[in-house]
Structure formats: C-alpha cells, structure tokens
C-alpha cells in the first residue's frame, strides 16, 4: 500500500534525508520517497498514517495526510 503525505518546511536535500530517515523508522514502512519540490512523501508499507505524520513532526516539520 502506498500512502502519500504532505510535508511542509523542507528547503534542501538534507531536509529530505531527515524526513526519509524518520519515516523509515516507523514500523511497517518498507520504502520511502521524499520530494521537497512537491512537498510530498510517498511511503510504501502497512504503517498507520498517524504514525507517519507523528514521525515527520517529530523530525521538526509539519505534515498532514
């Protein structure tokens, strides 16, 4: 299953990496693609949307499904 969430506040490649790493630590995530230009993160796996949003917010960014 693919889940796409909107991520606000990314300004560079390091931001993308930080968010990718945070999302990869969520249980049930198998792969992550983050794109600062579209302000989106696409997550493959069976993770709960709320857990994904919390992971992004825990990394210091704003997120919503």
Automatic annotation (TrEMBL):
Source superkingdom: Archaea
Entry-linked PROSITE patterns: HMA_2
Any GO molecular function: metal ion binding
Pfam families: HMA
Region called Disordered, residue ranges: 26-46
Protein name stated in the entry: Copper chaperone CopZ
InterPro entries: HMA_dom (IPR006121), HMA_dom_sf (IPR036163)
Domain HMA: 1-64
Coiled-coil regions listed in the entry: none
